[in-house]
Design brief:
This protein has one helix and four strands, in the order H-E-E-E-E. The chain has one helix at about 1-5; strands spanning about 20-25, 50, 55-60, 60. It has a four-stranded antiparallel sheet with strand order 1-2-3-4, with no helix packed on it. The radius of gyration is 17 Å and the shape is elongated. The protein starts with a helix and ends in a 37-residue tail after the last strand. Residues about 90-99 have low confidence and may be disordered.
Length: about 100
């Protein structure tokens, strides 16, 4: 719902035609290795990151791919509810099932 509230109709869910941004992690193993002097250190405990369907972190190592892109709102009234046709249904279609 947060993605829809911001007018990002292709974000916030795993579904055909949407941008898939996924982080796979073990919360018991996450360690922030960045410091005040070296803030760019990658965290430990995040083995996989998939951005727009492209593997960006594989087994904890950056793949060198940078598939991110500019996110643009798809509706124009900040703070207003999105059009109801953008809201996902309550059936399987809302979780990426067949439509």
């Amino acid at each position: 719902m947060a993605a829809l509230w911001l007018g990002l109709e292709r974000k916030g869910r795993i579904q055909v035609g949407c941008d898939a941004d996924l982080t796979i992690f073990d919360p018991q193993k996450i360690v922030d290795r960045g410091t005040y002097v070296n803030p760019d250190q990658a965290p430990a405990g995040i083995p996989y990151v998939i951005i727009n369907g492209v593997l960006a972190v594989d087994k904890g190592n950056h793949t060198g791919k940078r598939p991110g892109k500019i996110i643009r709102r798809t509706w124009n009234i900040p703070g207003a509810l999105p059009p109801t046709q953008l809201l996902p249904g309550k059936g399987v279609e809302s979780i990426g099932g067949t439509q």
